[in-house]
Specification:
Its EC number is 6.3.2.9. Cell wall formation. Catalyzes the addition of glutamate to the nucleotide precursor UDP-N-acetylmuramoyl-L-alanine (UMA). By secondary structure, the protein is α/β, with parallel strands linked by helices. It has nine helices and twelve strands. The chain has two domains: about 110 residues, UDP-N-acetylmuramoyl-L-alanine:D-glutamate ligase; about 140 residues, Mur ligase, C-terminal domain (Protein-Tyrosine Phosphatase, Chain A, Alpha-Beta Complex), CATH 3.90.190. The radius of gyration is 20 Å and the shape is globular. The mean pLDDT is about 95.
């Protein structure tokens, strides 16, 4: 890169893509490159609650979003958190980042209308269907352990989690620590299935684990083992490249499989 955008936003930083970068310092430097060519008239928007991004600043104006902007449940004196329709604190942070980037450029009324009408996008904790009283969610973009952990926290109660694929050389140990509290059943697929299982079994009260040949078997097993009121979540914590072209293809396959279940049993 030899240029930076006039408005640069870094939502957060956590270990990722370590199959490509030589370490977390190199990965952080690559993210930091977004800011390196900014000038005095440019604007950086950074997460004040994320330790790695709160240590960064732009070359011009810098503004940090985060909990310090929330008072009585209202973000920056404008938007009630309760008006955000997509679940999960990471989505609250995404809204904060977007608001910070455009406030003063567009009207407050436009910001409020956009947030109140936004219900999410494909592959990002996307509700797919209810089948036999079980809700299915597609978070195929969850290709790192940190993303999967964030999505687990967005759901109330324990989920049946479908995870696995090709790892990014990012450890699974921190994700494994979250499994007893957030996962009822762990269904593993892909090249990293054994790695995830090894880390999961090190944790006290590890949930039951089922290894599956692929997504077809995982969805079938989830359907057989889930009970009304359960949630089945595809959030792989890995890339899709061992079996798919990309995370979109993986997510659409999941949606197709759930759709076939829906049609076969007459779901809602």
């Amino acid at each position: 890169m030899t240029r930076s955008p006039h408005v640069a936003v870094i939502t957060n930083l956590s270990p990722n893509h370590l199959d490509w970068h030589r370490g977390i310092d190199e990965y952080t430097a690559a993210k930091r490159r977004l800011l390196d060519f900014q000038g005095a008239n440019d604007f950086a928007v950074l997460n004040g609650d994320n330790p790695a991004t709160s240590d960064l600043c732009g070359r011009g104006r810098t503004k940090y979003f985060g909990m310090h902007t929330v008072e009585h449940g209202i973000i920056d004196g404008l938007l009630p958190i309760s008006d955000i329709r997509i679940p999960g604190w990471y989505n609250v942070e995404n809204v904060m980042a977007a608001m910070t980037a455009v406030r003063g450029t567009v009207s407050d009324e436009a910001i409020l209308e956009a947030v109140r009408n936004f219900v999410g996008v494909e592959h990002r904790n996307q509700w797919v269907a209810e089948v036999d009283g079980v809700h299915y969610y597609n978070n195929s973009i969850g290709s790192s352990p940190a993303r999967t952990v964030a999505t687990l926290h967005a759901h109330v109660g324990k989920v049946l989690l479908i995870a696995g694929g090709r790892d990014k050389k990012v450890p699974f140990d921190e994700m494994a620590k979250q499994l007893p509290e957030h996962v009822k059943l762990l269904l593993l697929i892909g090249e990293a299935a054994n790695q995830i299982e090894i880390e999961a079994r090190k944790v006290p009260n590890c949930p039951p684990i089922v290894q599956c040949e692929g997504l077809v078997e995982a969805v079938a097993q989830a359907h057989n083992l889930a009970v009304p009121g359960d949630t089945v979540l595809l959030s792989p914590a890995c890339t899709a490249y061992d079996q798919y072209l990309n995370f979109e293809e993986r997510g659409r396959h999941f949606v197709e499989l759930v759709g076939a279940l829906h049609r076969s049993v007459g779901g809602n």
